[in-house]
Amino acid sequence: MTHDPTTAGAASSGNTAAQHGPLAGLRVIELGSLIAGPFAAKTLADFGATVIKIEPPDGGDPLRVWRAPPGPTSVWWHVQSRNKQSVAIDLRTAEGQDLVRRLARDADVLIENFRPGTLEGWNLGYDELSALNPGLIMLRISGYGQSGPLRDLPGFGVIAEAMGGLRHITGMPGQAPVRPAISIGDSLSALHGVIGVLMALHHRDRNSGRGQVVDVALYEAVFNMMEGAVAEYDRYGLVREPAGSALPGVAPTNAYPCADGRFVLIAGNGDSIFKRLMALVGRNDLGEDPALARNPGRVERMGVIDAAIADWTRRHTLEQALEALAGARVPAGKVFTVADMVDHEQFQARDMIQRVDLPDGSALRVPGIVPKLSATPGRIASPGPELGQHTDAVLSASGVDAATIAALHRAGVIAGG
């Protein structure tokens, strides 16, 4: 079933992105909270999908107040929930569950990231909803997936990153594993979920017309990034270990100290690049050594090569090193902070830093749209909505009469306006 944008979705305000972009006309119900499910829905919304976010009336999605000092609403909220409509419904009530079933009848996709079995307990599982709407695609993101002996355990990104192998290979050898200061496991699962949704939509619209379940486990999304780790272990008994800022098995590529206390990242692992790099640092003896002409030989002498490069970088400031490396056509860069990003000419040229106007009249810089589509680019049409901002409009457009909406408000089943 393909949603008609001239009906329910078009009746609600504050989401003009639903009328533009490659996913215009696609209707998505988001039941998730925090990061994984909402990140997937945000990506679809950026490219024109009408995303109706269902939130609990008593406070809404907890992300609204994460990392938010000062003020009642997190600025992160306006990144994660941009281009969405907010409908506040208490899913713990029979009336609230009936409303979700009504909305699901006209939806193309439903996204959820509850613990497996939660929706079934509310009679909102895929079997129930697909009986009402055979074309519905349900994206289910959970810690361990919808099957297997661990399915019922609570799963968070930090645990998934460890189980999927990422934590073991981060940090310095012999020290405690470190985590990136972002929710990378959740974000990776969201992106896998978007890929699965788009494939399921293609299959539905080209073949049977029927939807299906897209089952994404957080640990599996991380595990899918582990490159050749399984094959290396199976064939050679090799367990990939942490290597600090280097990349095991690839040489040279590392972060090297500069004279001003900063670090320059150099990727000199291409065969011809390596020769130019060694000439630049005054080590033609290494660059012309036949044993180092290919990566396997360089890996065997990685310590010697890294020491030679570091000896050169220590005698130059970061800017001096970058200028010289650029002149030698050696890929190099600095470690960017967000302060470096927001005003950088490349980020600006690619429209990766955009401004949105918030309800209080202030402007906020937010990340731009990824990926770039030449004919049907994404856009930011609205910041994160107020809690329940679109409740009445969405329910009315779905056929709920005004008297029933008023009664649901009085009963506390729904909230907002």
Q: Could you characterize what this model shows?
A:
The protein has 417 residues and is α/β, with parallel strands linked by helices. It has 2 domains: 8-224 and 352-415, Crotonobetainyl-coa:carnitine coa-transferase, domain 1 (Rossmann fold, 3-Layer(aba) Sandwich); 253-257 and 263-334, formyl-coa transferase, domain 3 (2-Layer Sandwich). Helices cover 37% and strands 13% of the residues. The protein contains 19 helices and 12 strands. It has helices at 8-11, 36-46, 77-80, 94-104, 118-121, 126-132, 157-163, 184-206, 218-223, 229-236, 271-280, 284-287, 295-300, 302-313, 318-327, 338-342, 345-349, 391-397, 402-411, and strands at 27-30, 50-55, 84-89, 109-112, 137-142, 213-217, 253-257, 263-267, 332-334, 353-357, 363-367, 414-415. The strands form 3 sheets. It has a 7-stranded mixed β-sheet with strand order 6-5-4-1-2-3-12, sandwiched between helices. Helix 2 (36-46) crosses helix 8 (184-206). The radius of gyration is 25 Å and the shape is elongated. The relative contact order is 0.14.
Summarize the structure.
The protein has 19 helices and 12 strands.
Query: In percent, how much strand structure appears in the residues?
Result: 5-15%
Largest sheet, strands/sense/barrel: 7 strands, mixed
Query: Which outline best applies?
Result: elongated
CATH architecture of the largest domain: 3-Layer(aba) Sandwich
Number of strands: 12
Q: Radius of gyration, Cα only, in angstroms?
A: 25 Å
The CATH H-level homologous superfamily of the largest domain: Crotonobetainyl-coa:carnitine coa-transferase, domain 1
Q: Low-confidence parts, pLDDT < 50 over ≥5 residues?
A: 1-18
Enumerate how many helices there are, as a single number: 19
Report the helical percentage.
Answer: 25-40%
Widest sheet: strand ordering: 6-5-4-1-2-3-12
